[in-house]
Amino acid sequence: MRIVPRILLCCSLLLLFALASNDDAYACSCISVPIEEQYERSHIVFLGTVIEKDGQGGNIFEIERVWKGSVLGNTLYVYGGSFGMCGIEFEMGQKYLIHTWHAEGMERTGICSGNLLASEAAEDIQKLNEWRASEKQKSLAAATLLIISITAILGLSYWTMIRR
């Protein structure tokens, strides 16, 4: 019978020490992820200015430039979540580099998505521009190869037809 009070005392002391601990807890902390990885994870990557907020985590951006994905028109609704739940708060009239993912029928973003104020994103924007230029060169090379191949096939077909 004497063991029960001792167990209760030990459990109470452990609980007291756990509650008295003054370490801060951060539920929404992000590790630093390189722009290359953020780009690969993202559904849409764009530069845009906040032109409207719905008060419930939604933001409408006027799109200036898109590096990944496609946007119909020149505006995009992006849900940033609620700030207390790892969401992100955007300021009206500010320009941002935004990385989104697509879920539940809409574009979403959060504090760990790699979003930056445009004024702080010069290095990332430069890398995105370089990748975009590289992709265009690859596309141009592929298109050129396709045109040459089609021309060669048509030429060979024509030559074969004439010889008969």
From TrEMBL:
Keywords: Membrane, Signal, Transmembrane, Transmembrane helix. The chain crosses the membrane at residues 140-159. It comes from Xylanibacillus composti. The keyword Transmembrane helix applies. This is Tissue inhibitor of metalloproteinase. It comes from the Bacteria. The keyword Transmembrane applies. Residues 1-20 form the signal peptide. Coiled coil: none annotated. InterPro entries: TIMP-like_OB-fold.
